[in-house]
Amino acid sequence: MEFFVGLDVSLDETHICVVDEGGRIVKETRAASEPKAIAKAIRHQGRRIEHVGLEAGNLSQWLHEGLVREGFSVSVMEARHVRAAFAAMRVKTDRHDARGIAQLVRLGWFKRVHVKSLTAQETRVLLTARTFLIEKVTATENSLRAALRTFGLKMGSVTRKTWEARARELAAGNPLLEGIVDAMLRVRALLLDELASLDGQLMALAKSDPVTRLLMTTPGVGVIVALTFRSAVDDPDRFPRSRDVGAWAGLTPRRWQSGKTDIAGRITKAGDPRVRVMLFEAAASILGRARVMSPLKSWGLRIAKRTSMKKAIVAVSRKLATILLAMWKSGTAYWAAGRPPASAQDLAAA
C-alpha cells in the first residue's frame, strides 16, 4: 500500500498528516521544522511513503533539500493553488491544512513549484540584500530632507556625490541641525559603503558566469537585470516554449470569460515581482536611454505611437523576457542592427 504525507510548515513546528491511497488518515502528529525531525516522524517500518508535499514558503526550499537527502520524493506546492483548494474550508487550522495538503498530494491536484539551485538561491540573497540597502539609503535621505524642510531649508535637485555637501551647507550655523545631519550622514555613508561592497560582489559574479554575460549583450540589460532573470529562471528547460516565460513573469493580460462575457484586463502580476520590476526597468531603458536602435526598440516605439508609452514598456518587457530565455537556450548573443551574433563560448573566452 502507498502512503502520502502533507506538511503544514511554520517557523518552529510542522503539522504532519499521513494518508493511505484510499484517503484514510493513518497518522497525525507534529514535529520540529527540521528535515531530520520530520523524516523521523513520518518514517515507519513497512510503510512506503510515495510522496511528501508542502506549501511554498520561507522554509520550503531548505526542507525540500533535506527531505530529499533523507530519501523521500518531495514536491513544493504553489501557494495560490493550495489556498484556492482550501477556500471552502469552514474551520482553518494547521491540523486541517496538513490534512488538506495530504489529500492534494494523493490526488495530484496541485502545481509543483520549481526548487531553485543553491547558486540561484545565493544570488537572490545578494540581490535581496542590495534592494534592502537601497531602500534604507533612500529612507535616510528622505528623512533628512524632511527634517531640513521643517526649517524652510530645501535640498533641491542634487546628485548622490553632492548630497552630503549640500546637506551640511544647509545645516551650517544651527548646532541642533548640524548634529542631526552629521549623525544621518554617517549612517548614509555606512549604507553606501556596504552597497558598494555588494555591487562589487554582484559584478564579479556576473563576470564569472557566461550565461549572465550572454544576457548582458542585450541593450538595456545590465548586471542586476541579468542576474535577477538568471537566478529566477534558474533552469531554462523548464519552459517548453520561450514565450511561456512572459506568463510566468506575470506580464500577460488577465482574462475572465463566461458565456458572452469576455473581459481582458491588466497584466496578471503573477510570479516573482522582482523579475517583473527588473524587466520593466530594462524595457524603459531600451525605449528611452538606449542609443542603439534595435529591432526590439523600434517595435516598442511603434506600439507607443499607436497606444501609450506605458503599454509599450509592458509589451517590450514581455518580449524581452522571451528574447532573454531564447538567447539562453540557444547560446546566441543579442543581434542588433549591423552586429553579428556571438556564441556563449565566444563570450566566455573574451
TrEMBL record:
Residues 213-290 form the Transposase IS116/IS110/IS902 C-terminal domain. One of its GO terms (biological process) is DNA transposition. One of its GO terms (molecular function) is DNA binding. Residues 5-150 form the Transposase IS110-like N-terminal domain. InterPro entries: Transp_IS110-like_N (IPR002525), Transpos_IS110 (IPR047650), Transposase_20 (IPR003346). Pfam families: DEDD_Tnp_IS110, Transposase_20. This is Transposase.
